[in-house]
Amino acid sequence: MTAPLLEVRNLARDYGGGRGGAPRALDGVSFVLEAGTILGLVGESGSGKSTLARLVAALDRPTAGHVLLDGDDLFALPGRALVRRRRDFQMVFQDPYGALDPRQRVGRIVAEPLHLLAPRPGRAERAALVAAALEAVGLRAGDAGRFPHAFSGGQRQRIAIARALVTRPRLLVADEAVSALDLSVQAQVLNLILDLRDRDGIAVLFITHDLGVVDAVCDRVGVMYRGRIVEAGPVAAVRDRPFHPYTALLAAAEPTIPPVPRVPTSAPPLAGDAADWAGCVFRPRCPLATGRCRAEAPLPRALPAAPGRSVACHHAEAMAGPG
Amino acid sequence: MAEPAPPMPAPTISQAPLPQAPVLNVEGLTVRFAGAPAAVVEDVGFSVARGRTLAIVGESGCGKSVTSLALMGLLPPAARVAGRAVFAGGVDLLDMPPRARADLRGDRVAMIFQEPMTSLNPAFTIGDQIAESVVRHRGATARDARARALAMLDLVRIPAAAERLDAYPHEMSGGMRQRAMIAMALANDPALVIADEPTTALDVTIQAQILALLAGLQRDTGTAVILITHDLGVVAEVADDVVVMYAGRAVEGGPVSALFDDPQHPYTIGLMGAMPALGRRTGRLATIPGAVPLPADMPPGCRFATRCPFADARCAAERPPVRAFGAGHGAACWHAPIEGFGVAA
């Protein structure tokens, strides 16, 4: 049994300065991402999805827990070894305007991660790797000599993806990588991500707030709420029958064509209501909440009838229904 | 067969049979910035009736926000605006003395912006900001204006409204700030509200609450709403009529159901194919190749011709007229109707 490409175990992150009892930005998050698959992490503002992305990309250190790449704990590696491992995992950020230095040519921007390779590639090899990365995202090798301002938003996001691909990583961490793009351009970038998975076997941790985008490109999905993964499983199964009331609420709120009748959504708790942090994090908004939900925080668990899925809810059986 | 293009009448392409006289009727709206090679909004027309919601949808740079700013008289002086926008059967919003326009704005015509954090003044309480417009337009006393502000916060269902009256914008969540913005816009019972991406900055569950709130208030007050958005899902949820804009022109318009069931313009069809939607998994998404041309490179004919799979020489050279495809449904395309090219179900 070989280790999965990425395994996250019990990851937690506190941000300092919180008053006593302040909730963790990330708490007890665990999941596995296999090579050549796309895992979507979906959640609203404050769900901890960007904190998780930064930890998986080793741009920040966790308060507790582990990030394992091929079974190696990234945060147990000595500094130099971690730098060398970075060629295997690269990150794509949300804003294609802010993520590219406007004063550098595209070729230099895309070549930047190549200093992670040992031995360092020579000038000719560098140019060849940059050209290959640009072509992999549908740009031309000749674009290396141009500046970012000459490109549209979608093309800039392709440049950012080319930069992430230039070291031939096995894992891409994409944090809201298509959120700033117009629909027609977003579709181009989503198709590119599908190509990277199918053609090159690249795994993607795809972080987004958009359930429709998850449905379009992801194999599995994790739904995050207040720093926890409250539900996870294959995309189609979770979409067709959510086991967690929050997943159902999120799906019902998604505007659709044709419109579906609105389920009234409960208002979120007001910030600073500390008493609400006891028990299940979703309890203040949950239509199914009972005394047990206040007393005892539900842990992720599998339902016997649904292999491959997990849900952190005391009432998941009621959501799953008979049969 | 190539007939010369008929002289272009102002294409008013959202003309579903209106239940009554329109609150706003826009014809031939054109906005050009001094020195720019092409108009950023060209010959756009639509109308919206009492109690109805008209959505203007399109991608970045299509001119939808410039359209709303032109109607509100908020464009910079370098903008040259032509056309007519007849409000309530009387005044032309595009041709008013600044003073009269200022009297109308925030009173009979109000606006809700995308970012409630930057559109609210951080140095004043929510209550003061709502009361200000009541004092300005209604000549209310401070006490009456404060009572009105409280009633408005109740109306948009802000909990503990009496306490929130004295809260500053930074003390409220994004959803609550947007509710306060709506309360401010509606404080003087406007006949027309222009909402520019009112839910784009909000989480999807909060968006659903705000859209439901707007729809409920509209039912009660009969306000006409122009909703500017890039989100086709939001259009389908809340709008009665829709205008699709591309590169400054209205390319298709009509009742929402007609447009979504039977889109006619290749750009509308492309947009709908590119939309990732729940439960419509088909592997790859349809894409629209290329990008919007730069103003200097706009083709003289159809502006979508550079990206359109059906484009031919006539498309590049001659601007297509708006043609009707059923009640109030029109599209500006030489090739419409396009048979056998429905959106993948």
Q: What is the gist of this entry?
A:
The complex is a heterodimer of chains A (about 325) and B (about 350). Chain A is α/β, with parallel strands linked by helices and about 325 residues long.
Helix content of chain A: 25-40%
CATH superfamily of the largest domain in chain A: P-loop containing nucleotide triphosphate hydrolases
Q: In terms of structural class, how would the helical and strand content of chain A be classed? A: alpha/beta
Tell me the fraction of residues in β-strands of chain B, as a range: 15-25%
Number of helices of chain A: 11
Neighbour order of strands in the largest sheet of chain B: 5-6-7-3-8-9-11-10
**Cα radius of gyration of chain A in angstroms:** 21 Å
- Strand order across the biggest sheet of chain A? 6-7-8-3-9-10-12-11
Any idea what the shape of chain B is? Answer: globular
Biggest protein-protein contact in the assembly: A-B, 46 and 43 residues
Domains of chain A (count) = 2
Kindly report the oligomeric state of this protein. heterodimer
Describe this structure in words.
The complex is a heterodimer of chains A (323) and B (345). By secondary structure, chain A is an alpha/beta fold. Chain A has helices at 49-56, 79-85, 106-111, 123-136, 153-165, 183-200, 211-217, 235-240, 245-253, 291-295, 316-320, and strands spanning 6-13, 26-33, 38-42, 64-69, 72-73, 89-92, 171-175, 203-208, 220-225, 228-234, 301-303, 306-311. The radius of gyration of chain A is 21 Å and the shape is globular. Chain A is built from 11 helices and 12 strands. In chain A, helix 4 packs across helix 5 (153-165) and helix 5 packs parallel to helix 6. Chain A has 2 domains: 6-240, P-loop containing nucleotide triphosphate hydrolases (Rossmann fold); 262-323, no CATH class. In chain A, strand 9 (220-225) and strand 10 (228-234) form a beta hairpin. Chain A has an 8-stranded mixed β-sheet with strand order 6-7-8-3-9-10-12-11, with helices on both faces. A 4-stranded antiparallel β-sheet of chain A has the order 2-1-4-5, with helices on one face. Chain B is α/β, with parallel strands linked by helices. Chain B has a domain at 251-345. Chain B has 12 helices and 11 strands. Chain B has helices spanning 64-72, 98-104, 116-119, 126-138, 142-155, 161-164, 174-186, 204-221, 232-238, 256-261, 266-274, 313-317, and strands at 22-33, 41-49, 53-57, 79-87, 109-112, 192-196, 224-229, 241-246, 249-255, 322-324, 330-332. Chain B has an 8-stranded mixed β-sheet, with helices on both faces. In chain B, strands 2-1-4 form a 3-stranded antiparallel β-sheet. At the A-B interface, helix 5, helix 6, helix 7, helix 8 and helix 9 of A face helix 8, helix 9 and helix 11 of B.
